[in-house]
Each structure stands twice: as C-alpha cells, then as structure tokens.
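Hello K.,

You asked for the raw outputs rather than the summary table, so here they are, unedited. I folded two proteins back to back in the same session to keep the settings identical. This is the first:
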Amino acid sequence: MEYKFCGNSGLQLPKISLGLWHNFGSVDDFENATAMILHAWENGVTHFDLANNYGPIPGSAETNFGRIFKEHLSSHRDEMLVSSKAGHDMWPGPYGDGSSRKNLIASCNQSLKRTGLEYFDIFYSHRYDGVTPVEETMQALIDIVHQGKALYVGISKYPPALQQKCYDILADAHVPCLISQYPYSMFNRQIETDTIEIAAKNGSGFICFSPLAQGLLTEKYLKGIPQNSRAAKSTGFLQVDEVTPERVEAARKLKEIAEKRGQTLPQMALAWILRDKRITSVIVGASSVKQLDNNLHALDNLTFTDDDLAEIEVILKDPALQMHKV
C-alpha cells in the first residue's frame, strides 16, 4: 500500500480506502464482510469509511464493523483510521435528518455506540441540507472534536459556494477541515470545475467516492445487466435507465485502453483518479475479496502517458456520459 499526507496535516491516508456503503449491512453476508475487511487490513488499507445510515438497515454497517473490529482488530486501533458521517435520513421525526447541531451530535453518539469505539478518527457533516446555517453545523463539528469524540473533521458534498465558508469557520476555531469527500469518476467530473481546487487552496485533503460510477466502470455491464447487480435491484442506487448504450460503449473503449496498459478497466479508472496530486485517497466498495483485491492492484500502475490521457479524453468528452447524482 502507498500512503499520502492528507492536505496540510501530518496524517497519512492509504491511497485506497475501503468504504462500507454497500455489502456490509444486516441484509448482507457477515462472513463475506469480515473477509473483505480483514483482506483490506492485511493489504495495508488502514482507513475504513462509514456513515450512520449505511446498511440496510440504517446503522447496521457500523454495528457489523464494530463486531468485526472487536473480534479481529481491536488490538490494532491505533494503527487504523475509522471515519463516520451524519446528515442523511437516519431515524423518524424531525431530528433524524439534516445538518443541525442536534442531528450531528446525537448521530455521533449513536455511531460510537454501534461501533464500540471511543472516538472516530474523522467525523463528517455528510451533506448540506439547504436549511441549517453553515455556522451551526461547523460549530457542531468543532465541539465534537473538543469533546474528544473525533480527532479530525471533514465535509462531504457541500456546494462550492459554501466550501470556503466551511473552511474559514473551522480554521478560525483551530479545527481545520482535514478532508473533503465528493463523488468523482470518469463518468462524474463535476469536482474538476472548482471543488477540488478550493479544497487544495485551503489545505484540505480530498477523498473520492463512487470512483467506478456504481459499477459502470467495471466490466459488469458490458454484456447486459446481471441478475444480482445493483442496477437489477429496484431499490439500488444505480438504476436501469442509467446503464445507457453510450456509457456501456464508452466502458468498452476504456477497457481496451486499460488492457494495453496491463490493467483491468476498474484498475485504470482508479488510477486515473489518483493521477491528480491533489487527491489523497479513493474509497472503493467491494462485494467480494476477489473484487477488492483486483481494485487494490490499481496501485501497480499509476502512471499515464500523454497519449493515454488524450485517448481517454476523446472517449470522455461526450456529455451524455456524465452522471451527477450523489
């Protein structure tokens, strides 16, 4: 594993982190989840990314992680980073959603209980809810650090117009924004407009999720929609109508470039993200140890020639490929 300093901090993150958004909840195979987490750990993945609502059922990914941690990894707590977040719908009533102080602090307390941890290494505001003043949300993050419930804080998916304000409030309180988390992939390049540069100018690290466009940048959909895939499920984050002919054809062409580089398509897609020196880490999901291991080997070749990048750009310039859902 390769590690990189996060923004202007002294904290290093692995270039590939493991996300527990899918396949680690109560409806999933616990033994498979255990095997993936242990394989990640044994291969130098020191950062595990959670959120209070990951499941299903919401909260169960944290519960399962806590059980795996207690049974297998508790003696390694100081060697790993565990992050969690709050801000999306979690429990009934007016306080189980959004960016209020009430929601963030209650959520952090609940998440610590579910995981069995004494503190999180990073705690995020998972989103801007469009209502809560940014000052209130950032103060909640500041207080979570002052209370010893997190070592660092971050923001996720905040609109560029509010990013600077978040960074300024946190910096003024001497609790700087360690890291900013946004979706980024060959099929979702929104952050390239301004988001990533705003973070870099403020010394915030940057971590990307959905790097494989919910599976569209794997080889899974090149011959149709598999029965057990995300797109085949009516409740899945990736819907059938997003598996468009344009994206499938682009994936086929990208796969050809990857093969010339000695990589699989997902390996090249991850390497393409990590080519940007402003990016600290990329969060991968996985449904099996084999898939996770394939993704980790993206680090075997992170170098792109100018010809590689030009050939890729010809494919990606089609605006019909871009996905903006987060």
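The second followed immediately with the same parameters:
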Amino acid sequence: MKKEIFLCAINNVLSGTCLEDCKFCTQSVRYHADIERYNYKSIETIVKEAKQAKANGALGYCLVTAGKGLTDKKVDFVARTAKAIKKEVNDLNLIACNGTASIEQLRHLKEHGIDSYNHNLETSENYYKSICTTHPWSERYETCQNVKSVGLQLCTGGIFGMGEEPEDRDSLLNALASLQPESTPLNFYHPNDALPIKTRNISRDEAIEIIKKAHRLLGEDRLLMVAGGRELLFDGYEDIMFEAGVNSIVIGNYLTTVGDAPTKDREMLDRLGYRVATTCHA
C-alpha cells in the first residue's frame, strides 16, 4: 500500500506590504510586482476559507502575513484568527508564518491555538547575503530555535534555483536537518519579471536529488513537502517526486501565484494510487 499524502493550504492574510529587499519575493514593495496587495483580511473571511480548505482535504492551514516579522498588532490578529478557526473547524493543524518572532510572541500564539510555526531559512547562510541585505540569515535560524523552545512544531525549508551553487544547497539541507523540523517545505524558484532574480537555475533531475537528500537527512517520520514551483517542475511527473520521498504538498493557490485546483491534485493522487491523509496524528 502506498503512503498517505498530507495536504496543506495557504492563506495570505496580509499581502504585499513588506519593506525588506529579498530578491526572490514579490511581496516586497521595492520591486513593484504586479500582485494583489491588501491589509488584513477579515477574520470571518479567513474562517470561511479555512472551512473550504478542510473540505478540500487540507490538514495543515497556514496563516501568512507579509513583513519582516511579528509586531504586537500581528500577534494579536493571528491569535484571534487562530482562536476563531479552532472554534469552528476541527482537526486542522494551524500554522503561523509571520516572519521573525520572539519566544514571548510565539508562546502567545501557541496559547491561542497555533500548532506550528513556519519560518524558512531560504538558502545557505553564505548565499543569503546575495539575496537579502535588510536582515541576516542568523535571525531566521534564531527564530526557528525559538519555535522549538516554546514547544510549537517547526516548519522550515527553503527555495532552490535562485542562482545558488550546489554547495549552497547542501549547506541549506544540513542547516535544516540541524533544527530537526517536523515539516520541511521545498520550494523551487518561480521567476517574475519584476524581481532581480530573472531565471531559475535548477532542473527536474536536480530537484529530485535535493528531495532524496532531504529525505535521508530529515528522516522517514517527518513531513517533506514540495510547495512553491511544484507545477513548474513536476506537472505530469508527480510520481517521481513522491517516489523520491515527498509525502506532503500544498493545494490551491500560493502567496502570490496561482496553483492547481484542489480537485485536480486530488484526482492526480487518486490516479497515482496515493491516499490523502485524514489525520495529523497518523
């Protein structure tokens, strides 16, 4: 019997307002990418969208806010949103993705219903200086350590294909493994004309090798997800992706790019003989 595949959905609850200069991110106001920009969604809308995600089979539901890190306002908003979702939607692993965060902020989110915190390392410590100058890689790593220290599940990964060298990819995977995350999203760069990084320097074969290495380093009992860029590299080739070790995918849209319809992904999994996981505790 083939393994179960865990589905996750993303909700961009505060979009396109970031002041940082990460060269891979359309949410930065510096690059004027043609994306939808808005302030906080209503909590009522987010709860409704969470119900739809659960109906589509998602077990993980990620609340994302643009910006460098948590502020008092963001902490309060995400906490109130988490509480509202948990009141109306059962068996949904709530993930917060709100940038750098202190122990106190993370503890507050945990107390109000957040189960996991996502903060990606993005790339190697050495290469990070080439793609972001407004904050250091060490702040990202420290936030991941803070997540572990308060007892939240850690979700951390990175983006491949941003011009990095093979040694940067290995360095990133080793750094991720050192944090022992419960979940690791592997993203593959999606070029946008507005961004400084114009092309993607990764092939499908290289992506498969990254998945295999991540699977070996992180272990059988952890979630290994292919998230952003999946449709670009693996459309029609999902079988080799799962065989390499992937056991989780994002369904629906991403932060600022359109993903496949959840029904299409469900049909793909059924065609390949995979079952959709129905509990986070499997």
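The first helix runs from residue 43 to 55.

Happy to rerun anything if the numbers look odd on your end.

Regards,
P.
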